[in-house]
């Protein structure tokens, strides 16, 4: 179970590039909105240089060892230890939420996270992404916690 979480952003070549903005060109179809309240309790400093990246996925397969060929379809960043990121007009349903934080401040969220990146996901059962159901035209709010327990390519609990 822990292995799935460690593989969250594993060596599958996942990229955040081009996922920063989610735009909808179809104004007649309104998706749901998602607010993710994030709380990071780890030791790292979170600021403009050390951001937390929150990613939306359309499948829970991103935690599989192969990554399932998944890429996030939307990414937003947070520059404080607690705060909210908003995703508007999300047309995929359900969605799955992950978080990543690089304490070195070298990662800008546009490539695969480096070794040592703190990883987390919204889940009800540790290591298993929980689906978030969205309703068209409505705002769904979730709370996700991130700590220093799991880091990329580290096979032991920190």
Can you put this structure into words, describing what you see?
The chain is mainly β. It has a single domain (about 1-15, about 30-145), classed as Immunoglobulin-like, CATH 2.60.40. It is built from 1 helix and 9 strands; from the N terminus they run αβββββββββ. It has a 4-stranded antiparallel β-sheet with strand order 3-2-5-6, with no helix packed on it. Strands 4-1-9 form a 3-stranded mixed β-sheet, with no helix packed on it. The longest helix has 5 residues, at about 1-5. It is globular. The relative contact order is 0.30. Residues about 1-30 and about 155-158 have low confidence and may be disordered.
Features:
mainly beta, Immunoglobulin-like, 4-stranded antiparallel β-sheet, globular, 158 residues
User: Could you give a short account of the major beta sheet?
Assistant: 4 strands, antiparallel
Radius of gyration: 15 Å
How would you state the average pLDDT, rounded?
81
| CATH fold label | Immunoglobulin-like
Helix content: under 10%
H/E element order:
HEEEEEEEEE
- Helix run count: 1
């Amino acid at each position: 179970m822990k292995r799935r979480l460690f593989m969250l952003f594993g060596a599958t070549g996942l990229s955040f590039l081009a996922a920063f903005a989610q735009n909808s060109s179809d104004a007649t179809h309104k998706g749901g909105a998602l607010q993710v309240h994030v709380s990071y309790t780890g030791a790292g400093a979170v600021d403009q240089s050390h951001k937390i990246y929150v990613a939306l996925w359309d499948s829970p397969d991103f935690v599989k060892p192969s990554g399932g060929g998944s890429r996030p379809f939307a990414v937003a960043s947070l520059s404080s230890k607690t705060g909210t990121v908003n995703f508007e007009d999300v047309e995929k349903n359900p969605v799955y939420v992950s978080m990543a934080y690089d304490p070195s401040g070298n990662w800008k969220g546009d490539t695969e996270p480096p070794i040592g990146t703190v990883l987390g996901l919204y889940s009800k059962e540790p290591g298993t992404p929980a689906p978030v159901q969205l309703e068209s035209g409505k705002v769904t709010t979730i709370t996700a916690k991130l700590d220093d327990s799991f880091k990329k390519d580290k096979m032991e609990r920190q």
